[in-house]
Amino acid sequence: MKNTLKNSLNQALLIAGLVFSTLTFAQTITTNSSPTPATIGTSKIWGSVDGISMIGMVQGPSSADAQLQVACVFEYTDNDIHSAQALPANLNGLVHLDEALKGEFTKIRESGQFQGHALETLLITPPAGSMSAKKLLLIGLGDRNNFTPELMTSVAEVATREALRLGVTNFAFASDLKDAGIDSPTALVAGNVVKGIVLANRSEIYLREHNLSKTKKLEKVYLLAGPSFFEVAGGGIQNAIAEVKKK
What we know:
Elements: H1 2-32, E1 43-49, E2 52-58, E3 68-74, H2 93-100, H3 104-110, E4 121-124, E5 135-142, H4 151-165, E6 170-174, H5 186-209, E7 220-225, H6 230-245
């Protein structure tokens, strides 16, 4: 009788342990799994601040339909956008940009015409039909080994000021960090970009109010992200919008 009771108890404990292990394993999978990748062309208004709609978009810099395209670029290293660390060519916005410009994106960097130093800029007029945007602004990120997410606030400020100076009412912004092979914190980077845009725009609002500027009002910014990073970037954008609205 005692042996039977003991065996029954052991079996019950074994079953309970298996159930617990199964539940724990399932919870681990759910916690660590990535969101389902968004499809190319997906767009969503994550919010607005100071009259600017912050629109997330799954699109590459060569295809985004905006008046101005901004692309962020590190200092050139040999074959960098095709390196093992970079995104695969079919998902790599910088590769698509180079193809749209028939290799000139790489030639400009390789030859030193644009060195990619932090906050360096170069404005390009793409050949007709090569890109959706009429103007392309490259902004340098400096040495990839020294990159910090905080730099993106200053980069976005530069992008916004240049956009306003060019007289556009919307522009698309591609950080291109993952494309270049940098394992950056997506939400933090996206949030810092929003903060930079707002800082620059608020300076311009001040200048307009004091009759020191006559730039057009910025209405939309398209924040580009890859399919696997769209939702995560959106969370960072929403958090940043909530934060800057308090200031």
